[in-house]
Amino acid sequence: MIPGTFDYHSPDTLDEAIKLLNDLGEDAKVLAGGHSLLPMMKWRLAEPTHLVDISRLSDLDYIKEENGYLCLGAMVTESALENSELIAAKYPILKDTSEVIADPLVRNLASVGGNIAHGDPANDHPATMLALNAIVVVCGPNGSKREINIDDFFLGPLWTALQDNEILTEIKIPIPKQYSGGCYIKLERKVGDYAIAACAATLDFENGQCISAGIGLTNVGPTPVRASDSQNMLVGTDVSDEIIEKASVLASETSQPVGDHRGSEEYKRGVVKTLTERAIMKAKNRALGGN
Amino acid sequence: MSFTINLTVNGVNYNDVIDTRVLLVDYLREKLELTGTHVGCDTSSCGSCTIHLDGKAMKSCTMFAVQADGADITTIEGMCQNGELHPLQEGFKEEHGLQCGFCTPGMIMTAADLLKNNSKPSEEEIRCGLDGNFCRCTGYQNIVKAVQYAADKS
């Protein structure tokens, strides 16, 4: 399948890339790994007339801890995240997430920044970033830079707070406290598919009590869904099995699934409940020492 | 729009002016006549288009040739060195890892990347490593054996 015609630009610096986007306007699209954009272009669901390739901006590819945050450059590939020793040791929820995105070949090219900037509620990282209370760093014209809380980033299907002349350059995740744990569990019809539903859960404990919780849900709404009622139910408790059960029921009620070829609305709500239960349980085990 | 690309494929340098819309797989097959790389689904699922780009296995139907400007590419044609089959090619031959052969180049390219990063993979690691490559003929059993053959040989 062949896409519509377009001009191709491959800038050497971030400033050059942003200037291109600013000059070319809304018909220009950022191209990173291209594994969401190219399939859309080949189906002619997207017909940008200009592509600004940022894959050669090597200074956007890093995984580091700095000033209380894990900082992921936007061009970190899913493979790199999946195979990072730091991520496996301290942020297993990110490894859980990256390793269920598509397949190993796609993950070699797919970028974490793209998975978030694309704004598809079916992508996996958005829900995880909600659960982690991440901050999205965005660069714009004239050296401008702003930080957007993840809760303010996703506005609708394929619609984010990114302006046409801005590029997502980094994701910041607060470094977890001592008794913190997270987990991402996805149910898919077959390997490489989008989620029927998925749940990202994070818990922080102090003296055996949960002091904060994050729950994000994938592909059960027009944006990734934060299950706030479930979070509130868990905070201030010891996250007993009984409370996990109630929280997972609330998550299923908070979700807004649409019946489609991946299942009916009722089925998807059931999946949300089960996955939330399992994700909270595993997050708790990881937080309190275990796996 | 036309764009000039310079790249290396199987050790040979190429300089071409192409349309921006040309997919990498189509450039390799139609311009360079390296037809060992196949177009199966054209939707980034089946992996029959798998090649190595700058040392990483990837699906060439999901990249424009212009994105590969400056790249170092290996296709299935580049796996046999000095007339000697690559251990994976030998493995697919010895273990009957193919029937129609359509998925085979992609399987070999992905497996080569897998073995480069993990020289002694478990069966599960092989099966998971090949998640992005589909076979309609074999049921995968002998494909796994072929990869194990190559791993044992190295």
Protein traits:
heterodimer; A: 291 residues; alpha+beta; Uridine Diphospho-n-acetylenolpyruvylglucosamine Reductase, domain 2; Uridine Diphospho-n-acetylenolpyruvylglucosamine Reductase, domain 3; Enolase-like, domain 1; 3 domains; five-stranded antiparallel sheet; four-stranded antiparallel sheet; 14 strands; B: alpha+beta; Ubiquitin-like (UB roll); five-stranded mixed sheet; 5 helices; globular
Could you tell me the radius of gyration of chain A in angstroms?
A: 19 Å
Structural Rg of chain B: 15 Å
Number of spatially distinct domains of chain B: 2
Integer tally of domains of chain A: 3
Judging by the overall fold, what is the CATH architecture of the largest domain in chain A?
A: 2-Layer Sandwich
CATH class of the largest domain in chain A: Alpha Beta
- Biggest sheet character of chain A: 5 strands, antiparallel
- SS element count, helices of chain B: 5
What is the fold-level CATH name, i.e. the topology of the largest domain in chain A? Uridine Diphospho-n-acetylenolpyruvylglucosamine Reductase, domain 3
What is the helix/strand order of chain B? EEHEEEHHHH
Biggest contact = A-B, 29 and 30 residues
* N-C termini distance of chain A: 45 Å
Q: pLDDT under 50 segments of chain B (min length 5)?
A: none
What kind of assembly state do the chains in view correspond to?
heterodimer
Instruction: Report the strand count of chain A.
Output: 14
In helices, the fraction of residues of chain B equals: 25-40%
Unreliable segments of chain A (pLDDT under 50, ≥5 consecutive)? none
- Percent of residues of chain B in beta strands? 15-25%
Mean pLDDT of chain A: 97
